[in-house]
Amino acid sequence: MFFREATVDDIEKMHYIQTVARANNFSTLPGITLEDYQKLIKGRGKGWVCELDDNIVGCAMVNIEYATVWALFVLPEHEGNFIGRTLHDIMTSWCFARGLPKLTITTPPGSRAEQFCAKSGWVVIKTEPNGEVRFELENNLEPQNYF
């Protein structure tokens, strides 16, 4: 496995992963475009991918402007291999090393993503009007210089 920063060349594969991921699926959400990914990668945020045998099998993205996790997904056939955990740790360490005091993430209630957040130290701060659970993670981690 190889973890690296995402580039615009990775966007189509990252979008595919988001549409098939079981933990928190964007496939039914209208309006998410490839341009949205480009905006994040080119300035509003940052992304990372995990490659295995020259294929992208997981991705993570953060919107720095709003200090929110925009994506953290792994292909279903690669779940349970610590890919999501590693991407999470790379992403949160990168954000916190840059002085962000906290991050937020939303996820549907009862999802695998909700379980992942709870196990990863995120704290529920509210339920959104659409029913999603909003979590917060404070900057109390030891920064790692991954990238």
Structure description:
This protein is of the alpha+beta class. It has a domain of 100 residues: 3-Layer(aba) Sandwich (Aminopeptidase). It has 4 helices and 7 strands. The strands form 2 sheets. Strands 1-2-3-4 form a 4-stranded antiparallel sheet, sandwiched between helices. Strands 5-7-6 form a 3-stranded antiparallel sheet, with helices on one face. It is globular and about 40 Å long. The model has no long low-confidence stretch (mean pLDDT 88).
Strand order of the largest sheet: 1-2-3-4
- CATH architecture heading of the domain at 2-101: 3-Layer(aba) Sandwich
How would you name the oligomeric state of the polypeptide chains in this document?
single chain
Number of H- or I-type helical stretches: 4
The separation of the N and C termini measures 16 Å
Number of strands: 7
Rg over CA atoms: 14 Å
**CATH homologous superfamily of the domain at 2-101 - what is it?**
Gcn5-related N-acetyltransferase (GNAT)
